Structure formats: structure tokens, C-alpha cells
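Notebook entry, structure prediction.
Reason for the run: the old model in the group folder had no record of what sequence produced it. Starting over properly, with the input documented here first.
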Amino acid sequence: MSPPTANSSESILFVTGRLAEPGLREVVAGIAETLGFRFEIAVPGIQVAALLHVSLLIKRLTIPHDITRVILPGWCHGALSELEQHFGKPFELGPRDLYDLPEYFGLSKRRPADLSQYSVEILAEINHATRMPLPEIVRQAKALVASGANVIDVGGVPGESSPRIAGIVTTLRSEGLRVSIDSFDRHEVEQAVKAGAELVLSCNHSNIDWVAKLGVEVVAIPDVPHDLASLDRLIERLREDDAAFRVDPIIEPIGMGFTSSLQRFMHVRERYPDVSMMMGIGNITELTEVDSAGVNMILAAVCEELGIQSVLTTQVINWCRSSVAEFDAARRVMHHAVAAGTIPKHLSSALVMLRDARLKPKSAESLQQLAAALTDPNFRIYAEAGELHLMNRRGHWRGQDVFQLFQQANDSHVAMGTQQNSPARGAEVPIDASHAFYLGYELARAEIALHLGKQYTQDEPMYWGLLGPTRASSTAGLHAMNPDLP
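New structure, fully documented this time:
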């Protein structure tokens, strides 16, 4: 049961780790202002609140004399009675998640973080656009913008000089889209700029003599990735020409100098603290065979902390086909986390797609009690503790083999259908085709949830983060398939 709501006569000490202190201070300040109590925060020389233990607190915690109660993180281990005896103050375990403190104090559930702001612009490239039909370019561009792209980057084909660039850029601009051109070919670049492209990717000493005179912003890159001296010379030349530019020190793929290239980004930021920077993150997401959401989150963190204002990305290969939407979600979370001085946890679950942020497990005992209490023939399905559970009044079948569970349940119904049951219950009948389809569908979903570590709730859609369907449409479909639902 939650503790009583705090009042103005109280002075409460909140204990936490160093990492959670900024977030805790922000949350508690709002609660204290609403309820009128005074508060202090203690960090007893530990980074992570989950590592707190009563024995450590006895050694390290200092409590001011005016404190009336002490609230510890819900993760704290040990007997609180030892602390109360040692300090002569009442102690209590708060929630494990500091952002649940408003509800703990009897207020409404925590307000969601404001993720409307971001500081990193997304350039989404359409690769080899000059070889694509114009309607397909427009379709892809609109889809990329809907996913969060700010600028559509028209990618040329190295070694080719296409006369279609002007028409592509003009069409995209007529749709109200911002456009950049990704080419070193002078004819293509000049066409694009004349048609309305606002940014040229890229500029080095091979094209500086003409590209700096086009009157639009350019992306400055070193002549070869590791040659930062060439980038220094290029920056000096662009400044002399009074040309607008941003700098991309080139992020290299893992196995090809990834860590060294990160160091180059840090070096350039230290050397040029006020210069706009860009990172071509597609070199990582496209060339690393892994689901791209976590990769995009880390890259967004690097950009946010280094003040990199734009990224160039693609979503060509299948494992990163939602990269633009992923980076859009990531840049908002990271902007909030860095600005607020908090860790990027429990701010948004949009990028938790394969698993779920939280599970609500049922104990084996509670499942057994439920199965024993069932008095109707409708099936209940659960995915808990490494097993699937299928139950109704005729039985409780459990295991990991969906086909076996269904066969056992169906055999039970067939057997009961051959017997005379009491009039009060009526005769059981074999599972019909529509019901079998429903059970197969639900058991398959339960099996997927079991393997991935997701929450499964019968007749409710699973959560897939930013990739998931809306709850309303999914639930409607499930109700249509389930003959047992009211």
C-alpha cells in the first residue's frame, strides 16, 4: 500500500545514485511544489541506485536532523529496520523507477517526457535516384519525410552524369520538400542547385574551386578520411571564400577504422567548437548486420553530446529499413536526456520493438488457481515462465509445442463430445474450423511473445514500438476472429 501523502510539515530525504540524481531532483521538485513538503537528496557515494544496500547506507549515509522520513529506491536491499534503529528515523522503499514517484505520492501518473524537440537534422538519401522513375522517387521522398526526414538527399551514381537531376529536384521542390544533392559531378550539382537544392554533398580539394562559388551550403570532407590536415585546409579556404559549410570528418564502418573515426569527430569538435557538423550514419547502420534501432540510438547519443547538427542516413538493406523513423525517435529521446541531465530510460519505448520495456508476469500458482476455477469451455491462453498455457474447464495443457497443445485440447473436446454430459453443462463438441483458426492465431502470437520476451495478453495486440499497428485496429481484428468474445 502506498504511504500517506506528504504534507507541508514534512522534510523528506530521498536517497539515490549519482546517475539518477538530476532526474530525481527534477521529479521531486514538482511533487514537493504540489504537496508543499521540503526535501533533500543524498547520494551516498554510489553510481547506480540499484546497488544500494542497508549495510552501505549505515556506513555512508548522513541524515540532517530536521528530516522526518527517508525514502529509498525500491531496489535497495536489506532490512529497513536496521536503518531505523541506527538513524532513529522512519525509512521506506519507494518505487524502483523514480519517474513513478508522483503516483507513489498519490498524484496522477507521471507525465510523459516532452519529446517534441530535437537538435539533429535528418538527411535521408534516395540512393541512385537518377536511375529511378520519377513517381517512385516522389513516393519514397514523401515516405521518408513522413518518417521524420528533414531533407531529401538525391543520390547520383558515381561515374555517371545524368541530365535528369534538374527535373528530379524541381519535382521534389514542387512537393514542398527540402532537397540536397549527393554528387561530385559538376553538371549534376549545378543542375540541382539551379533547380533549388540547398546543400551539396560533398566538397573537398577535388571540387573546391567551383563548388564553393555556387552560393549554397556545402559539406566539407577530408580528401581521405584519416587526413584531418586536408580538412583544416579546406575549412580555411571555405572561410576565405565566405562559403556556408558544415563539416563531416567521415564515420567509417566497423572493421575499417570505426573507433578512430569517432576520435576524429571529437578532435574536430574540440578544434572547431562553433562549426556545424554532419555524420553519415548509414556507414554504420547499412554495413552492420544487426537490427538498427539500438545502433541509431547510440549514434544519436554521440551526435547529441558532440553537438553534431545533422546526419545522412539511408534505409536500403532490410535490417535498417525503418532507420529514418528510428533515428527520429532516438534524436528526440537523446535531446531530452542530455538537456535534462538524465539517463535515457523510461522516456519512450518507441525503440523497444523486439522485447517490451516491462512485463507483468503471472505466477505458476496463480495460473493453477485460475485453471481450477474455470467453469466454461472458452479457452484462456498464457505465455509465462518459458511455457505456453492453454486452459478451459476441461483441462490445463502446458508446454512449448503449439501443435501438441492444440492437439491435446482438441482430443479432449472430441472425447467429451462422445460422452453424455449433464444437462446443466451440455455436451462438448469438437473445435470447429473458425475457432481452430482463432486458437492457432493466438497460440502463434503467444509463442512469438515467449521467444522474444514480450508481454502476451490474449485478444490484445502485442507492442512493437514505432513499428506496431494501432491498438484500435488490431483489437477489432482480434474480436472478429474470437467466437468466445462478447
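Summary: Residues 121-340 form a domain with the TIM Barrel fold (CATH 3.20.20.20).
The old model has been moved to the deprecated folder.
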